[in-house]
Predict the 3D structure of the following.
Amino acid sequence: MPKPGKKIGVFILDDSALIRKVMREIIGQQPDMEVVGVAPDPIAARELIRSLRPDVLTLDVEMPKMDGLDFLERLMRLWPMPVVMVSSMTERGSEITLRALELGAVDFVAKPKISIEQGMQEYADLIGDKIRTASLARIRQRTLSEAAADRALRPMAPLANRLLSSEKLIIVGASTGGTEAIKEFLMQMPSDCPGILIVQHMPEGFTRSFAQRLNGLCAITVAEAVDGQRVLPGHAYIAPGNAHLRLGRSGANYIVRLDQGEPVNRHRPSVDVLFRSAAEHAGRNAVGVIMTGMGKDGAAGMLEMRNAGAWNVAQDEATCVVFGMPKEAIATGATHAVGSLRSLPGLVLDHLAANAGRALRV
């Protein structure tokens, strides 16, 4: 993290001279950051990074001499720092990017379009926001025992008849650092858990790969949400990139609603949009979960959930990559409990089990 008043030092690692030039220009536009170094490949970058000590590294996914993932894995083991991946918007690119987030990258951004167009300033603002957020991220070396513990995560015991899972719902929102937080949360969910609706701030094209990756790791079924589908126990529904996810009703059933409404808190999908719909349609049958992320998206909606009778929990500062969204939700009085990432599934399921007889049909 840069010292107060000091510009954020950014190192650009990309094999394309044109991309390096564009990235240098974009970062140069930001009043609070500067480019401290560039390199075309990891071999050339290693000693420069060690000597220049940048605050944030932007890292290309596919490069010559050493794959970006191999370099990232070594970097996070030997010299951990905030990393923003620069990824191509392809299926393979999204899969590699998700693996990079598992290895410790803070966030990612799509490769810039080289042509001059109206959207270029918006894209430059996006890169600036990503780097700014990454500079605030909590980065630490992961021990081998911690990595082994993550791989050994197992679902909690089946709920059986402990709660009316068809009437209960779990509503989740996250942003920066959320892909790994959501993975850890869902991997502990038993196959008969209540239906789960999730908003994770991700661009279009990445959420499907994210859902498919989780589906292969979890005891529950995980998929990208589809408009109009019924919300079922043992299933998790992830908001598609560039679409708001809302909870709806059709007779006695909960259903998924997707729309292209205006961004809320600069996001589509927005956590506030999902939480507000849960307040309206689920009330005390919902449990809200807010996880790591920058900004305040979700805080107002979670307060509406609480006022409607929902029970809410936030991830604690110590285990957040960025303690922004949970901090805002806690500050508004929207949460009932705060817990570490590893403890959140137990807190949620214990609360649901303890209140199984208090379901409210709406």
Notes: The mean pLDDT is 89.
